[in-house]
Write a structure and sequence with these properties.
Blueprint: H1 2-36, H2 43-65, H3 72-76, H4 80-115, H5 126-153, H6 162-177
Helix pairs in contact: 1-2, 2-5, 4-5
Amino acid sequence: MNALRWLNKHFEEAIMIFLLAAITCVMMAQIIARSFFASMSWPEEFCRYCYIWTVFLSLGYTIKKGNMLKVGILMDLLPMKLRKSIEIIVNILMLIIFAVFFRYAILYTGKIKVTGQVSSAMGIPMWIMYLSTVIGFALATLRTFQEIIDKIRNFNKKAETTLEVTLKEAIEEVEATGIDIDDNTDLTGGEV
């Protein structure tokens, strides 16, 4: 059960961290090889494909973290129940869109697999690259479904406004830097 809880909380970010670290290491190796030896042909393609995987994995991650593009200030002007109702409706629409994208990603990836197409520099099957769309849209569908369930469960709870969330995040960032905030200190650390 703990493993499932950990996967639910950290799956996307763990893979994205690994992929971004791989991009960093491979590009550093390419720079060193280009400077002292001969240039390698595969690092640019490898990094491009890792980046593509990162982009599609970030769909579910941004939904889970609540960082999807939205107009929060305008929503804050609405009554709480109306705002939460609109958020649920928007999430249902997103769920439908991601489910449709997921379906077509499966179909297209299957077509690519049948062709046997491989990448030019590394020679890996291209269906592995297109699998990023399948997994990305599957995670986006799952995370959107989880978001809908969470919003329905917490429908009557008071939600923080965009301003409150932003202020809380700013205070957490300032506290993380070790700057002491009191009535005589502005946020840049200088005396008022």
